[in-house]
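Thread: "does anyone have the structure for this chain?"

Original post by V.I.:
We have the sequence but no experimental structure in hand. Need at least a predicted one for the grant figures.
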Amino acid sequence: MPQTGLGVALKTLRERRTLSLREVSQLSTVDHAYVHRLETGEKTSPSQELVGKLLKVLKPDQRDAALVKWLVDHADADPQLVEFVLADPSISADVFE
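Reply from O.Q.:
Generated one for you, tokens below.
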């Protein structure tokens, strides 16, 4: 399954916090297998409630949280572009969108 922009964003934010899938799962009460499926692109379109639980654990800044929320509804976003934007904090969420 090809990776998605949302998957890239979630994995990047999780790795920034140096958390394992199981740690994110325990802290967010979201099944670790589901988090893995989101990261790999096997699952798409999670609920806003679920994304909120993950963001609470991942603690991204306001820009990165806005990117993740936007990516939930835009599964066709280029994963490489998402990776690039997350690595460059000078690119605002508005410019990315």
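V.I.: this helps a lot. The chain is about 65% helix and 0% strand.
O.Q.: and The helical segments are 5-16, 21-28, 32-40, 48-58, 62-72, 79-87, 93-96.
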